[in-house]
User: What shape does this take?
Amino acid sequence: GRGAARDMTYEVVVGVEVHAQLRTKSKMFCGCPTLFGAPPNSHTCPVCLGLPGSLPVINRMAVEMAVRAGLALNCTIGGDNRFARKNYFYPDLPKGYQISQYESPICEHGWIDIASGTGSKRVRIRRAHLEEDAGKNVHQAGANGSVVDLNRAGTPLLEIVTEPDMRSSDEVVAYLKGLRDILMYLDVCDGNMDEGSFRCEPNLSLRPTGQQAFGTKVELKNINSFKYVKDAMDYEIKRQAKVLSEGGKIKQETRLWNIERGETAVMRSKEEAHDYRYFPDPDLVPLKLDKEWIEGFRAGLPELPAARASRFISEYGLPEYDVGVLTSSKALADYYERCVKLFNQPKTVSNWVMGELVRELNGSGADASASPVSPERLVGLLQLVEKGTISLKVAREIFPEVYSSGKPPEQIVREKGLTQVSDEGALEQIIGEVLGKNPAQVAQFKEGKQQVLGFLVGQ
Ligand code: ADP
Ligand code: MG
Ligand code: ZN
Assistant: This one.
């Protein structure tokens, strides 16, 4: 019958599109700065305002960053790639088209490996292409209408698109974390999800378990944290499963994650590529990249997170958990290695960096590279413990102050009189005095009242 309920299990299928803002100083096709948070429309010029007669010039640094990202993502780098106009009308797009790449993207056919369940899994990258960002429509509360800020218009983006290879929200989060780490290691993207420098759009469909053909997908937007990636996808999986199991059909559409309501809602039905009337941009010649130029970048790639993680295991003998935390950001991994160079006890250093340091960094929202406690200073504290000047407990207790005051640990220890007394003769004398002054408690202890021991030690 119509809409007959079907009892089925479904497999989740996901492909992800990420827009990563490249860390260039200037925009993709003009010299305007890319700084975030400037007064509205202060970083604009005839090119990014789309004024008639202005002509775009390709930002060489953006191309370099795209090439380096593509190499790190195991892509083939197009020796010949061109820019295309993607036409649509929207107030934040003054030219009436976005300069993007369509038929020949700069990077294609790559992959990265992610941790999945117990093993590792390869996610294929279909393409990564350069494009410019649009401006921003600002809807002010109580205002009659919206205003447009074009500071962001023309900011270089690398759009990275995977094949539909992921099968759960956890795999998607693992992919996104892995990708973000790589881009941050390369210093081509600051990875800031709040400010929109790393925007992710999962495309999600379900298919009955065992079926080959993919189902109709929905694209999810407005997701600016890893937690929302998971929440939005888990909501969407339930929603689609309900529609399908009731005999309904999924509509191909773009849906927005609504944080307050904890649900996705339709934004628009999905356009097809032909709706955009893509065509090669006649203002920009095809970009022919020299093979040797590309290979130069390959040779200069830094050690990437996966390689660094395996080296941390072999070189420092750290547990996998520690390695995961320490290599999660390049800054933290760099910090850790500087400490270990000065203080060759890898596990002790790891405990301090993952524990005390990360706690304070999280509390102040700082990155390890901006830590007010330098590696030298942290090691200084560890050496005080090593020498027996202070106990481990005291070292842990004063760490927040070392962090917030900017004072050397030695000074804090001196000011607070926290030096640990290790001279046995001196200790015996103090103990004798305490026992002499508290005969009642000593008697109680001798009668078997164990609790008074704490009191005596405290004295
Ligand atoms: P569109 O033209 O709608 O943007 P694409 O084919 O370019 O669609 O794919 C966009 C993203 O959606 C890619 O990451 C791709 O892997 C993913 N995708 C494509 N088809 C599906 C599907 N049926 N289910 C889940 N993801 C899909
Ligand atoms: Mg798309
Ligand atoms: Zn400009």
Summary: Residues 13-17, 161-164, 203-205, 214-215, 217, 270, 273 surround adenosine-5'-diphosphate (ligand 1) (CB under 6 Å). The radius of gyration is 29 Å. The longest helix spans residues 226-245.
